[in-house]
Specification:
Largest sheet: none
Number of helices: 5
Helix content: over 70%
Structural class: mainly alpha
Radius of gyration: 19 Å
Shape: elongated
Strand content: under 5%
Length: 174
């Protein structure tokens, strides 16, 4: 099937595993998914809804981020293609193998962020269209909670991507 985002989501989740044991790092899962979920639940409990101006700003941010992330995805792919192949007969092959793994993980982290930003864009469009209908107030509140979850998760994922890319480039300069 041409439209299948589950590989991207699975590989993004795989980046939360320890490299040597292949077990998920619980603290990472709590920070990246538990904290945003808690914030979304708190927002729903207290009846938080975005103002019309905030929704307009989120629309603009979502559109810009989606485009920029698609460009970043292409850049990370080109970095992957430029990374030399692993040869176990050459000194430093383990470091190179780790670099390959991190570049692959960053690629799927960026792909996941692109999907998240696009989902936020779609949800803010839906919110914007439904804001004129009073009977949709409960749905908009639930929608806002989902937008909050995605937004906080996106912020944390951005920070992780920035850290990982900077570590890759710092290793290049050594």
């Amino acid at each position: 099937m041409k439209i299948n985002i589950f590989l991207v989501i699975r590989r993004h989740f795989d980046s939360f595993k320890e490299h040597d044991s292949d077990k998920y790092i619980k603290l990472d899962l709590i920070v990246f998914f538990g904290v945003p979920l808690l914030m979304a639940i708190i927002a729903a409990k207290f009846g938080f809804t975005f103002s019309t101006n905030a929704v307009g700003s989120l629309l603009n941010v979502g559109a810009l981020l989606s485009g920029l992330l698609l460009n970043l995805l292409v850049l990370v792919y080109s970095l992957k293609e430029k990374t030399p192949k692993v040869n176990v007969e050459v000194d430093g092959w383990k470091e190179l193998q780790l670099k390959h793994r991190v570049v692959n993980e960053v690629y799927f982290n960026v792909a996941f962020s692109t999907l998240t930003a696009f989902a936020m864009l779609i949800l803010t469009v839906v919110h914007s269209c439904g804001a004129d209908f009073v009977e949709m107030a409960n749905y908009l509140q639930m929608l806002d909670s989902v937008i909050i979850f995605l937004g906080i998760n996106l912020i944390f994922t951005f920070l992780m991507i920035i850290k990982r890319i900077s570590l890759l480039f710092c290793a290049e300069g050594d």
